[in-house]
Design brief:
It is a single chain. By secondary structure, the protein is mainly alpha-helical. 53% of the residues lie in helices and 9% in strands. It contains four helices and two strands. Strands 1-2 form a two-stranded antiparallel ribbon. Helix 1 crosses helix 2. It is flat and about 50 Å long. The chain starts with 16 loop residues before the first helix and ends with a helix.
Length: 111
């Protein structure tokens, strides 16, 4: 709901639980394929897809600060997932299921 006066969005377009499940499913597939842990894979994908900022520490080092997927809105997380799928295809030779295929297969396994 958006306030007509101040234009504040009182119900932000937060990521969905389905997006989060799918994100972690594809990260798990990539982790299994590459031998990295799930957390390592997530950080590597954030780096490869440009979801980080750099800053200088108090000691003069350049530090990378990765964006939290928990803070991503629906559209941003969707874009991140799309970039991961493309990266996996182009760089790892993987074929990642679409969200529809993933959830269809997940539902069939629970029947």
């Amino acid at each position: 709901m958006i306030c007509p006066k101040c234009k504040h969005d009182f119900i932000p377009d937060n990521r969905t639980s389905q997006q989060n499940k799918y994100l972690h499913a594809i990260l798990g597939e990539i982790a299994e394929h590459t031998g990295y842990s799930l957390n390592e894979t997530k950080q590597i994908m954030k780096y490869q897809c440009g979801y980080y900022d750099t800053t200088r520490s108090k000691f003069g080092d350049t530090v990378m600060l990765y964006h939290s997927t928990a803070d991503m809105k629906k559209e941003e997380l969707g874009n991140f997932i799309g970039k991961i799928v493309i990266f996996a295809s182009e760089n790892l030779g993987m074929v990642i299921q679409t969200p529809e295929e993933y959830f269809s297969n997940s539902n069939e396994k629970t029947k």
